Amino acid sequence: MFVWLYWITTLTIATFASVYIIKKMPENGFTVLTAFYVVYLVASQILATRIIEFDLGFYSFFAPAAVFIYPFIAQVVDMINEVYGEKRTRISILIAFATQIMFVLFIGMVTSLSPAPFFELEDAWKSLFGLSIRITIASWVSFLVCSNLDAWIFASLKKRFSEKEENFKHDTLINPYIWLRSGASDFVNLTLDSLIFVFIAFYGVMPILPLLIGQLISKNIIGFLDNPWFVIYKKLLKM
Known about the structure:
This protein has helices spanning 2-24, 26-47, 70-111, 122-129, 133-160, 162-167, 176-202, 208-225, 227-238; strands at 51-55, 60-64. It is mainly alpha-helical and 239 residues long. Helix 3 (70-111) packs parallel to helix 7 (176-202).
């Protein structure tokens, strides 16, 4: 129960803070959204080291704890795209990718140093942050492919249905064209990310199907649940 309270609280804070800064300090909006993007990515790298169980009552599956963060990553790409367009979204993606390279290099740098003789957590440290080359490559490839595809799908749908969206006479919260571009781009992003990452990282090493099912189900359920916050973001921007 508490995990959903944390999830709702953090997503709400990020959404309202982003809207406030974009409207009150527009010159800082892109920077703040990119900063959220980087934080989500770093958090996902760390949280992915813990595998958790999802118990639906009738079925249980396992997935990295970072599945709670992946939809945040997909959504912030949409938030940047909505205000600043596809071109600047791709710039943000490249910035975020550069920070991930630096993150891995920093871990490698520190891990290469000799631990203090009284440091008793060396094995735990290496177990937690000892990212294999294969997993790192899988993460980078899936990130670059899926984030850029997300940006393209979102921008394409926005352009295609812009007139219908503007002519929609009812409340923004029920505008189907806003829900469509957010939901469709996130679904493709999260689904393809699972496929690419699991196959590159674990093919021939671990059973692919259980890992794939766990990631596909958990990511897309949580990804669907965070769509209302994007719609709220859009509505607040128009107020």
